[in-house]
Amino acid sequence: MERISVKKLLGTAPIHQEVEVNGWVKTFRSNRFIALNDGSTINNIQCVIDFEKFDEAIIKSISTGAAIKIKGNLVESQGRGQSVEIQVSEFQIHGTADADTYPIQPKKHSLEFLREKAHLRVRTNTFSAVMRLRSALSYAVHTYFQKNGFYYFHAPIITGSDAEGAGEMFRVTALDPKNPPLNENGDVNYKEDFFGKETNLTVSGQLEAEAYAMALGKVYTFGPTFRAENSNTSRHLAEFWMIEPEMAFHDLNDNMDLAEDFIKWVIKYILENCGDDLQFLEKRLLDEEKSKPQAERSELPLIEKLKFVADNNFKRVSYTEAIDILRNSKPNKKKKFEYIIEEWGADLQSEHERYLVEKHFKCPVILFDYPANIKAFYMRLNEDGKTVRAMDVLFPGIGEIVGGSQREERLEVLQQKMADLGIDEEELWWYLDLRKFGTAVHSGFGLGFERLVQFATGMGNIRDVIPFPRTPQNAAF
Ligand code: 4AD
Ligand code: MG
C-alpha cells in the first residue's frame, strides 16, 4: 500500500481505495473524529474511528500532538468542511503526547508564548504556513536566478573583512578568552590564533561576490549573515539570511531593474503556488485586525497586497527629492516627525521611509543617489562628488527590504575613499586587486530574506519568520 501525504489525499488521490497516512493529531472529538496533519498542507484529513472496534486504552491514548499511523478507506465525506475522509480500519500510535504537559493545545496561543517554544511552534497552523512559505520563497529565489543566468556563489562565513565597515561583527576566535596571548602593547595577539589574524562572522558576502562577478559575470549568494548590532526591533536579527546578486557590466539602473523584477517574480511565484497557506494567513490577519482601531487596520488584505506589489511599478525617487518631500510633509495630526530632518545629508529614519511608502507614494519605493557620507565605502561616487550610486528598496509595513549600489570600480577613487575613512589597504589588498586587473562597472544588492518572508506572510515580528531566531539575549537553543 502506498504511503500517501495529507495534501495528496485531499487533492488528487482516487477515492474508494485503501490508504496509509502518518501524521500528528490536531484534534480528537467525540472519541470518533481525528483531524490529522502531516505538514504537507495547512489542511487536515478527517479520520473517522468506530471506537467500539478498538481497545479503550488505545482510544484514550489518542490526543493532540500524538504521532500516529492510520490505514483505512478513503471515502467521500458526509460531514461539512471536508470533501473526503478516511474510515479507519487500523491504527498504530508512534508516540503519545501527554495532554497535561504538551504545550501546544488546540486553542489560540500568543506568538510571544510560542517564541519560548521554538522547537514545537511549527506544529501550529500559523508557523507551519509561515515555514512552508519560507521554503517556497527560497526555491523561488534560486529558480529566478538560475533561470536568468546567475551562478550560485558560496561566500565564506568566516572572514577577515568588515564588508559594511560598521563594526558590527561577531569575533571568531580559537583563543582561550580567559588567557589570550598579548602583544607588546597589551592587546590580544591574533597572530597566535587559529587563523593567524583577527576573523569575524560575515556581515555580507558582497566583497567576495564582487570577485566572482568579475569572472563569472552574474552571481548570487544566499546564505546566513551575522550582525552584532544591539537592535531589539521587529525588523532585526543577529543571524539572518541574505540574498546578494552581483553583476559585472551593470550600472545602478540595471540594478534597480533587477531588484524590482526579482521581488515581483518571487511574490508571483507564491501567489501561484502557495494559495492555501496564504489564504490561511490572510484570514488570521483579518481576525487580528478586528481587534485593532480602524486607523491602524491594514488597507488591503494580504493577498491583495501581494498582488498589488507584483503588478505595479515601484516608484523611483532620488534622496534629494525624498528630502524635499519629507520637509514639506505633515505625517500625522501633530504634523511632526519624531526626528526632523534639518538639512541635506542626514540619514533617513524608519519613520521617514515608512511615511514615503505608506502615506505619500502608497507603493514600494526605490530611493537612490544617497549622500556619500552616510553610505558604505565601496559605493560608486557620482560626478557631483557628494552623492553615491546607492539604492534602497522600501516596502510598506517593512521599511528597508533591499540595500545595494553600483560599486566604485576606479582604483584611485576607491583608495582615496578608504584613506579618508581610515580603512587599511592591507586589509583589503585582494579587493583592490579587482580594480587593478580588468576592472569594470558592476553592481549588486542585498535583500534581507526574513524581511521578504515578513512581507509575504504578514507576520509583524521578524522573530516569527525564522525557525530559531537569534536576537540580543536570546539564543537559548
Ligand atoms: O543594507 P545592508 O546592510 O547592505 C549590505 O549588507 C550590502 N553589502 C548588500 C549588497 O549590496 N550586496 O543589508 C542588506 C539588507 C537590508 O536591506 C535588510 O533587508 C537586511 O539586509 N538586513 C537585516 N535583516 C535582518 N536583520 C538585520 N539585522 C539586518 N540587517 C540588514
Ligand atoms: Mg542598508
From TrEMBL:
It is found in: Cytoplasm. Transmembrane segments: none annotated. Residues 131-467 form the Aminoacyl-transfer RNA synthetases class-II family profile domain. CDD domains: AsxRS_core (cd00776), EcAsnRS_like_N (cd04318). Its EC number is 6.1.1.22. SUPFAM superfamilies: Class II aaRS and biotin synthetases (SSF55681), Nucleic acid-binding proteins (SSF50249). The keyword Aminoacyl-tRNA synthetase applies. Keywords: Aminoacyl-tRNA synthetase, ATP-binding, Cytoplasm, Ligase, Nucleotide-binding, Protein biosynthesis. It catalyses: tRNA(Asn) + L-asparagine + ATP = L-asparaginyl-tRNA(Asn) + AMP + diphosphate + H(+). It is an enzyme of class 6 (ligase). One of its GO terms (molecular function) is asparagine-tRNA ligase activity. NCBIfam families: asnS, PRK03932.1. HAMAP family: Asn_tRNA_synth. Homodimer. Belongs to the class-II aminoacyl-tRNA synthetase family. This is Asparagine--tRNA ligase. The gene is asnS.
